[in-house]
Structures are given as C-alpha cells and as structure tokens.
Amino acid sequence: KYYLKAQKQEKISGEVYRNPTEVKMSQIVMPCHANHCGELSVGQLLKWMDSTACLSAERHAGSPCITASVDDIHFEHTIGCEDLFSSCQWNVCNAFGKVQLKQVIPRTQTEQMEYSIAAERRRMRLTHAEIITDLLSSNTCVSVCVSTGECQEYQGAVSAERTRVESVELVLPPHANHQVSTFGGQIMAWMENVATIAASRLCNAHPTLRTIDMFHFRGPSHIGDRLVLKAIVNNAFKHSMEVGVCAEAYQGAGALRHINSAFMTFEVLDKDRKPRTLPRIRPEPVDGKRRYQEAVARKKIRLDRKYIISCKQTEVPLSVPWDISNQMYLSYNNVSALKIMAARSNWMLSSEKNKVSLYTLEENQILCFKVETHVTVPAEQAFHLLSDLRRRHEWDRHYQQCDVIIQADEDDTIYRVATPCVSKGGKGQDFILLASRRKPCDSRDPYLIALRSVTLPTHPATEDYTRGEVLCAGFSIWEESNAVTKISYYNRATPGVLPYISNDIAGLSSSFYSTFHSCNKYLEENRDSQTVLPPSDR
C-alpha cells in the first residue's frame, strides 16, 4: 500500500487544522506496477506523485494546473508488496514542484517554515546553471582525453555510444491529462524507462535509480504527438553512473520540440544490496566529452547537496569545507537549519530575568537553547547592527576578536572569531563561521542571521587556540511594531559552545541575561546611527 500526502496537520487553538490544499492518495502496489525485482517501478511512482501534486496545486489555484518543474528527487527506500498486517510506514522520497499561482498564505508554523524555505530552494534553482558553468571553467572538473578514443586510460572501457537508446511513443488519449496535454507524470515515466535501458547496457544488469536532477518542462505535449525519448550514459563513476535523457515531440513533418531533459543516477546492487563496481565509460568526441565533463560537475553538486543540505552527523563532521562552488548549498543549509530550529514548538522555559528569557529543547540527546528579548529598535536597524559580527565584541564578552576572511556576496560572509578560555590554564577557542543573512520574504517572515562552521585551507587550526565548531546558530528578528522588535537567538549546543552556556542552563549562573542586556543597550544606543555595512552592501 502506497500513501502520498501533500501537507501535514497541526492544531490551531486546540482544533486539528487541515490545510485546504492537502491531498492524500493511497494505492495498492499491484504486479502491473512492479519492476523486475517485484518493487514499485519508479515510473509509476512519478505518475502518482505528479497526480497528487497537481490536485493539491489546483485546490490552491482554483483552476487547472500543469507541472512546470520538479526539484531533485532522492529515492531513500524501495516499495514492495508490504505486509498489510504490520502497519509499517516509511518515507520513500520527497520532491517539490513549481507552478505559477496566486500568493500562498501559510497558517501554521510548519506551513510558514516550508513557505520560507521554499524561497531558499528557488535561490538554488536560479543559480544551478551558473554553478555548472563555473565548475566547468575552473580546474575542479578534470579534463579528459577523448580526441582519438585510443588513450590507455580507456582501454577496456565501454563506449558511451553502446549505451545510446532511442524510443518513440505515440501520445494517445489515455496518456493525456484533463487539459488534453500529455500527462507530465507519463512523460517522466517514459524518460525513466529509456534511462534504465541505457544504464543496463553499460552494466549488463538491472540498475536501480537513486536520484533524478531537476525536471524542467520547457513546453507542452499533446494527443497525437510522437514523443522521441533519447538516453545515453554520460559518465560512470566507481559505484554509480549518470544517464542523460531528453524528450522531444513532433507531429507529422513538423520540427522537433524540446519538452524535457533530466539526469538520472543509477547504481547496480549485488545480492546483499550493496553497490557493485561499474565498468568505465569511453566518451565520444565533442558532445561526448562535454557530457562527460558536465556529469563530473553535477556529481560534485549532488555530493554538496547530500553532505551539506542533509547534514547528517553520522556522515559528516560539523564543519563542511568552504568552496565557492558549494556556497549556494552551504548558505541554503545554514538558513534552512535555523528556520527549522526556530519553528520548533516544544521549547521549555528554563529561566527568565528582566524580560530576557532562556529556553531549552532536548531531543535525541541533542540540546538546543534559545534566548529571547524585546528591544525598542526598528527590526531592519537591529538586523543591520547584528549582521556585522565585527561589532559583536561591543556587547558580547565571548567575542574577543572577529575578522572578515571572505566577503562572498551581500548575503554571505566568512569570519574568524576568537573567544576567551572558559577554564583557568586552558586555551581560548577560535571558530571559522559562515554568516548568512536574509531579509523577510514578506510580513510573516523574520529577518535572519544564520551561523555555522566551515573549514578553510587558508585558516587551519593553530596551537594557540582550540578549534571550536558551530552546527547551527543565529538570530531571528521579528518586527512586532514600528518601534518594537523581538529578537531570538538560537544555538544547537556543540562541545565547542556548551561550556559558555552550561552554567546558565543548569541554573548556576545568569550570564545570558548580562550578555543580552548589553545587546539591548548596544542596539538602543545605535538605533538612530548610520549603520556601517560590509563593502558589498555599500
């Protein structure tokens, strides 16, 4: 049984609130839906996902909708014929589609968080092509020798041409949606089918689809179209391969129209469900070389997304290496992590003094804390004053020294922060922090200043300081009126941060009050001052 849903339920004023755009679909996985392994085929899954998303979009728009694009899809689990008596459910994949609609008005905390994070995903979509271009023009992607195809490096490699697949599908009425256009889910399913065939020609085995890069529909297809689907293996890595696939349409003697393109990553699993080593690919000259190099660039982007955006502590250290090519993903992770932490509703008040409150949240052996206060300073002015960490020493005694290392752009700055020693006879700590700042998407969104640790080869740890790390921290700045602003500071406690706050959390100290009392004083003393901005903001 396969279950899809578009939104979650939350309680508002004690009652269960159901988003009017929420759509749920339940399906029994039948043999006709299965692949060679007896598992739900990805093509069928894409059809169901597309139908569910379209129905949700139409509930919001109040008019017919079509799929414009789909963000990257990562398949976490497969779906087989489940034991209906176990009631076991698990997440298979998540995806986000895009349509042009009227403004969304979120009502719950979860909806507001998703609404806000959607703006970060849009930033990534808009810069995706630019990042690929930058990677190809840099030395990140290793050039390949394919002029003759006789290089020793490719001896024994499989020719990419051998994996080329072309198929033609006639679009019939059952393939159309309620607007008489070819159903987007059907096009994606056909694309997945030819990509799977191309992948199988490289490995002579049944491949398993792991990820799909962004689908972007460039134009519609209609009943009577001949849909030409083309696929080829662009590159093969040790345990995975990338297959490029495109869909074009024509009618009669008309010219081909580009409908969609996508890049799919496959693995071949052994009997223990572990990835097998794949044969190398020998790219063809010119276009083959271009596809080969672009696949290397996309692989790096996929790794950035996997290890930065997902940020699973079991897979990576707290600090992630900074590189200009992964700036967008680090910035996205930085801001999204803070938004998710701020959206949590189960904060517990630990202590309060003169309207400065300390909250804690402890789950799964992870401790987070929040300090909250109000100031009579306009929110935008508070945002600019707190954004420049070089001035934080004026109110925070833990910031002994702060220097700008890299001014990436107007939103992202990397600082080195030096902090004093907590215990006698020990060394102070230093942090390499990425500060990502965001102005509100609209009146329901706060100003944000997100902080997380990164590593730079130019600034390794030294003997004079212990290198500390910050996983997620920052300020959420809400405008409550023209003169009153609520400021919340969040931090997910790490070994480098905990010594500075543990006494306050344990109730043995109230230094947090002194620090944020100084912060209030600093903001109010500078409420009318001309803010000195970083060079990129001037």
UniProtKB/TrEMBL annotation:
<feature type="domain" description="HotDog ACOT-type">
    <location>
        <begin position="19"/>
        <end position="151"/>
    </location>
</feature>
<dbReference type="GO" id="GO:0005829">
    <property type="term" value="C:cytosol"/>
</dbReference>
<keyword id="KW-0276">Fatty acid metabolism</keyword>
<dbReference type="Pfam" id="PF03061">
    <property type="entry name" value="4HBT"/>
</dbReference>
<dbReference type="GO" id="GO:0052816">
    <property type="term" value="F:long-chain fatty acyl-CoA hydrolase activity"/>
</dbReference>
<dbReference type="Pfam" id="PF01852">
    <property type="entry name" value="START"/>
</dbReference>
<dbReference type="InterPro" id="IPR002913">
    <property type="entry name" value="START_lipid-bd_dom"/>
</dbReference>
<dbReference type="GO" id="GO:0006631">
    <property type="term" value="P:fatty acid metabolic process"/>
</dbReference>
<dbReference type="InterPro" id="IPR023393">
    <property type="entry name" value="START-like_dom_sf"/>
</dbReference>
<keyword id="KW-0719">Serine esterase</keyword>
<feature type="domain" description="HotDog ACOT-type">
    <location>
        <begin position="161"/>
        <end position="272"/>
    </location>
</feature>
<dbReference type="InterPro" id="IPR029069">
    <property type="entry name" value="HotDog_dom_sf"/>
</dbReference>
<protein>
    <submittedName>
        <fullName>Acyl-CoA thioesterase 11b</fullName>
    </submittedName>
</protein>
<dbReference type="GO" id="GO:0052689">
    <property type="term" value="F:carboxylic ester hydrolase activity"/>
</dbReference>
<dbReference type="InterPro" id="IPR006683">
    <property type="entry name" value="Thioestr_dom"/>
</dbReference>
<comment type="pathway">
    <text>Lipid metabolism; fatty acid metabolism.</text>
</comment>
<dbReference type="InterPro" id="IPR033120">
    <property type="entry name" value="HOTDOG_ACOT"/>
</dbReference>
<keyword id="KW-0443">Lipid metabolism</keyword>
<dbReference type="GO" id="GO:0008289">
    <property type="term" value="F:lipid binding"/>
</dbReference>
<keyword id="KW-0378">Hydrolase</keyword>
<keyword id="KW-0963">Cytoplasm</keyword>
<dbReference type="InterPro" id="IPR040170">
    <property type="entry name" value="Cytosol_ACT"/>
</dbReference>
<dbReference type="GO" id="GO:0006637">
    <property type="term" value="P:acyl-CoA metabolic process"/>
</dbReference>
<feature type="domain" description="START">
    <location>
        <begin position="347"/>
        <end position="517"/>
    </location>
</feature>
<keyword id="KW-0677">Repeat</keyword>
